[in-house]
Design goal:
alpha/beta; Rossmann fold; six-stranded mixed sheet; four-stranded antiparallel sheet; 10 helices; about 30% strand; globular; binds adenosine-5'-triphosphate; P-loop_NTPase; nucleotide-binding; ATP binding; ABC_Transporter_VariousFunc
Length: about 280
């Protein structure tokens, strides 16, 4: 469905380097990384809003830069905020977006508004932050888009809404012909929902793997400072407090007592890689 091949993009003070991954139909991929690591830049490249300096992006086997119109019809996006004239009403938003997409399904959109309890006559500026996001979601889901792209969709939103949103996305994936990319630093949402995780750190791809492999590979090891000193060469990074030390390792075949080793959460992984670069 979506394939990135060696994508690079350079700004004055930042470079996204050599990003490759693929996403098959029916799956959710999370893009994670610390602030400023390049998630939004990557999302903009995937959406064809930015041009890569090097590399290619293929959607259903076709280079997106050569088929921009077809690609645009096939993506639905949700940002962290709705950028639309705030004095206009929800019904004006619907009229505008419906003209963008040949497969816009008016009834489906209206059903989402009902489900999300959004009145068509409400002015955009009077929508809550959650309704704002839901309105974008209604649009993203109403024109038969095959790839849904969500950039920090849940930041600043409560857990009930975040859970509901994940459930809606999972419903949409049920018939297997859609895929979802979510960039976020709220990793709990992804621990539940994502099938694959791509981790970007300082513009580099650290991994793009299925969640089970990540769980098997990345471990947190705890012990005294001296115990971790012995393992220092294999630790990705470590934290030493007055009471204990802990570090991130790949794989746990170290012959160390299992009680001291646990699976690393996505948050742990971001923390220890980010810390290495002085981002904590
Ligand atoms: N158009 C641009 N021109 C120059 N630099 C840019 C541009 N867009 C982004 N950058 C820089 O690229 C880097 C990565 O930014 P990006 O927004 O992709 O990170 P992010 O991982 O999405 O961060 P956050 O989690 O804080 O939203 C930052 O240092 C940013 O200042």
């Amino acid at each position: 469905m979506l394939r990135l091949e060696n994508i690079s993009k350079k700004f004055d003070d930042f470079e996204l380097k050599n990003i490759s991954f693929h996403l098959e139909e029916g799956f959710i991929m999370g893009i994670i990384g610390p602030n400023g690591s390049g998630k939004t830049t990557l999302v903009k490249l995937i959406m064809n809003l930015l041009q890569a300096d090097e590399g290619k992006i293929y959607f259903q086997g076709k280079d997106i830069s050569e088929n921009p119109k077809e690609f645009k019809e096939n993506i639905g996006f949700v940002y962290d905020n709705l950028y639309f004239y705030e004095n206009l009403k929800v019904k004006d938003f619907k009229n505008t977006v419906s003209s963008f997409y040949s497969k816009f399904d008016s009834d489906k959109f209206d059903n989402y508004l009902l489900r999300f309890k959004i009145d068509k006559n409400t002015k955009i500026k009077n929508l809550s932050k959650g309704q704002n996001i839901k309105l974008m979601l209604a649009n993203a889901l109403s024109h038969d888009a095959k790839l849904l792209i969500l950039d920090e969709p849940t930041s600043g939103l409560d857990p009930i809404f975040r859970k509901e949103m994940i459930e809606i996305l999972q419903e949409e994936l049920e018939n297997g012909d859609k895929s979802v990319i979510i960039s976020t630093h709220i990793t709990q949402d992804l621990s539940r929902a994502a099938d694959y995780i791509t981790f970007i750190n300082n513009g580099d791809i650290v991994f793009s793997q299925d969640k089970d492999t990540i769980n098997e590979n990345y471990k947190i090891i705890k012990g005294s400072k001296e115990e971790l000193d012995i393992l220092d060469s294999v630790l990705i990074n470590r934290k030493d407090t007055a009471y204990y030390s802990e570090g991130l390792i790949i794989d746990n075949n170290l012959g160390v007592d299992n009680d001291n080793i646990q699976n690393a959460s996505l948050e742990d992984i971001i923390y220890y890689y980010g810390k290495e670069l002085g981002n904590d």
